[in-house]
């Protein structure tokens, strides 16, 4: 906190400046706009001074890196010790196509893998299902069975890399395949590291890749967390995701608030399932978006870390410091990329990368500049990876910890975003919790309203978007785009037909029958799923067992 006499001098000085120096300038020429706001619509003052952070208690609200409440970062040395994990999200076509891209990126200095699965896998359908037609390999790798998983990680030892898997409703099935593959490679479960997204609530809120109703879905989620806590100790068993909440149109504060609300629901579900909070919370992780407004994003990350630490300590009584740390992956904002003047996206991603790093992420994926047009080409993904490497090696952002701390603006904005997070969490608590808020459409409607406001600002020209509503130019049609061969669907269907003909169908049927019986009880499903995928049960076949038992989720419409 700042001395009162000093504050009074600052207050008088500012008043004099406004009446004198500033007043003379404004009398000659006004400012570009009457009101300045961040991308999220937060009003931005002309000037921030010590008055704006007069109540800030350094010891309680900021403190030191690696110490509660972790505002300045979760590690004592941050990037002075080592850089974040550079983890490009990749997957397209077949498992073989994607394996080639992984090996190329690892050769270029990428330090972790991130698996993009195609939509049928995400929805729990095999590549030969009628609903998969036209979607096979389009937005990720086609993974139907453990055979595909084996090809996906061909010549990649699982004890030498960490892997992130973006899969939610079908998370137990894909993790079971990964664990089975580790076993085949002779890698003990305690030697493999990585993250599985396993966040179904945000699928229901905004992304749409849900399968089962919320209650059995939460059971599958907690079963996976419990299994990993006991058997796969280095695995992050959930990555509570705000990325898609932001992509759907939320503000920065809403992204952090609704993600934390989901996190609270998962922690409570695990406690309700009989777990001690300090047994599982150290392996919880998060996943956030980052937009181009650097200061707002840095403040968002600082506010989120601080708020989550308080939630875990004060609400859930977590005693282990690791349980209180918000560790997170960041992806640059895919929705911010434009097909107009597509090379401009390199600069957008550069600014977003800088914001993510100054904000203190633990791993990062940078989008490729051509993603507004197609899946990333090899040249574009290399530029995206090099962007991370330049920020790491050349920008100086990694030489000191939390370099924006102490900025009157960033500290005030951190406080403001934390206050907005708190308002949302209290509102959701009053409603009866996250599941109730989702069921009543509260969170969905808040996001929709923000998206509507933002889109109106773009269409009216009130908010500049370079190349879209300002500095527009005629351009020739794009060339050299990556396209997935439509014949891939038939190729994958043929592979499935061969797998079903050649597998031991007695063992396969026995494993699925066992899974069905276990799923009817409170017993953890993970061992039964592992046995099923080892017997070459496909993603679709395992999910069909649960569709039969649990039913399918049908969302309400909220406007």
Overview of this structure, please?
This protein is an alpha/beta fold. The chain has helices at residues 4-28, 58-62, 95-107, 119-122, 146-152, 171-184, 200-207, 214-231, 243-247, 252-272, 277-280, 294-315, 321-324, 344-359, 378-393, 408-431, 434-439, 442-460, 488-502, 505-519, 526-534, 539-550, and strands at 36-37, 43-44, 85-86, 89-90, 113-116, 162-166, 193-196, 235-236, 238-241, 284-290, 328-332, 363-365.
**Beta-strand residue percentage:** 5-15%
Oligomeric status:
single chain
Distance between the termini: 45 Å
Could you describe the largest sheet, including whether it forms a barrel? 5 strands, parallel
What gyration radius follows from the Cα positions, in whole Å? 24 Å
Global outline: globular
Derived from helix and strand composition plus strand pairing, the structural class reads alpha/beta
Name the helicity range.
40-55%
In the sheet with the most strands, the strands line up as 3-12-11-10-9
Total number of helical segments?
22
Number of beta strands: 12
Keywords:
559 residues, alpha/beta, five-stranded parallel beta sheet, 22 helices, 12 strands, 50% helix, globular
Any chance you could write out the topology, listing elements then pairs?
Elements: H1 4-28, E1 36-37, E2 43-44, H2 58-62, E3 85-86, E4 89-90, H3 95-107, E5 113-116, H4 119-122, H5 146-152, E6 162-166, H6 171-184, E7 193-196, H7 200-207, H8 214-231, E8 235-236, E9 238-241, H9 243-247, H10 252-272, H11 277-280, E10 284-290, H12 294-315, H13 321-324, E11 328-332, H14 344-359, E12 363-365, H15 378-393, H16 408-431, H17 434-439, H18 442-460, H19 488-502, H20 505-519, H21 526-534, H22 539-550
Parallel strand pairs: 3-12, 4-5, 5-6, 6-7, 7-8, 9-10, 10-11, 11-12
Antiparallel strand pairs: 1-2
């Amino acid at each position: 906190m700042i001395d009162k006499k000093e504050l009074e001098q600052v207050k008088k000085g500012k008043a004099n400046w406004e009446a004198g120096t500033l007043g003379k300038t404004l009398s000659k020429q006004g400012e570009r706009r009457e009101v300045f706001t961040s991308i999220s619509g937060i009003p931005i003052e002309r000037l921030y001074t010590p008055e704006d952070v007069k109540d800030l208690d350094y010891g309680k609200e900021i403190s030191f890196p690696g110490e509660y409440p972790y505002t300045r970062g979760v590690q004592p040395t941050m990037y002075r010790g080592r850089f974040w994990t550079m983890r490009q999200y990749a997957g397209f076509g077949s498992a073989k196509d994607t394996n080639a891209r992984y090996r190329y990126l690892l050769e270029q200095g990428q330090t972790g893998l991130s698996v993009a699965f195609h939509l049928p896998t995400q929805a729990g359908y095999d590549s030969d299902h009628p609903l998969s037609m036209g979607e096979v390999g389009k937005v990720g790798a086609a993974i139907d069975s453990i055979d595909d998983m084996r090809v996906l990680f061909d010549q990649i030892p699982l004890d030498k890399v960490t892997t992130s898997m973006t899969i939610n409703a079908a998370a137990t099935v894909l993790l079971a395949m990964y664990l089975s593959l580790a076993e085949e490679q002779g890698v003990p479960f305690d030697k493999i590291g990585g993250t599985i997204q396993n966040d179904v609530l945000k699928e229901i809120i905004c992304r749409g890749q849900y399968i089962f109703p919320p209650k059995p879905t939460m059971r599958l989620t907690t079963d996976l967390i419990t299994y990993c806590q006991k058997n796969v100790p280095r695995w992050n068993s959930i990555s509570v995701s705000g990325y898609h909440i932001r992509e759907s149109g939320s503000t920065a504060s809403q992204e952090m608030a609704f993600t934390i609300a989901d996190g609270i629901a998962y922690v409570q579900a695990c406690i309700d399932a009989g777990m001690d909070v300090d047994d599982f919370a150290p392996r919880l992780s998060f996943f956030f978006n980052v937009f181009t407004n650097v200061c707002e994003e840095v403040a968002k990350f600082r506010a989120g870390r601080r708020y989550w630490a308080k939630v875990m300590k004060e609400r859930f009584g977590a005693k282990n410091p690791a349980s209180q740390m918000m560790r997170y992956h960041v992806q640059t904002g895919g929705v911010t990329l434009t097909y107009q003047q597509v090379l401009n996206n390199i600069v957008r991603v550069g600014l977003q990368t800088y914001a993510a790093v100054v904000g203190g992420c633990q791993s990062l994926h940078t989008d490729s500049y051509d993603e507004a047009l197609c899946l990333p080409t090899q040249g574009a993904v290399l530029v995206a990876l090099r962007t991370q490497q330049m920020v790491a090696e050349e920008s100086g952002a990694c030489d000191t910890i939390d370099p924006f701390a102490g900025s009157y603006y960033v500290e005030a904005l951190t406080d403001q975003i934390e206050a907005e997070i708190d308002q949302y969490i209290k509102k959701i608590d009053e409603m009866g919790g996250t599941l109730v808020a989702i069921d009543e459409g509260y969170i969905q409607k808040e996001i929709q309203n923000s998206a509507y406001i933002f889109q109106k600002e773009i269409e009216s020209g009130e908010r500049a978007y370079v190349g879209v509503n300002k500095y527009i130019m005629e351009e020739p049609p794009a060339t050299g785009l990556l396209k997935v061969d439509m014949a891939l669907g038939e190729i994958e269907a043929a592979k499935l037909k061969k797998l079903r003909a050649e597998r031991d169908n007695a063992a396969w049927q026995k494993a699925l029958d066992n899974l069905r019986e276990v799923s009817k009880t409170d017993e953890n499903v993970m061992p039964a799923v592992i046995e099923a995928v080892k017997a070459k049960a496909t993603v679709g076949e395992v999910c069909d067992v649960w569709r039969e038992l649990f039913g399918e989720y049908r969302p309400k419409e909220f406007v």
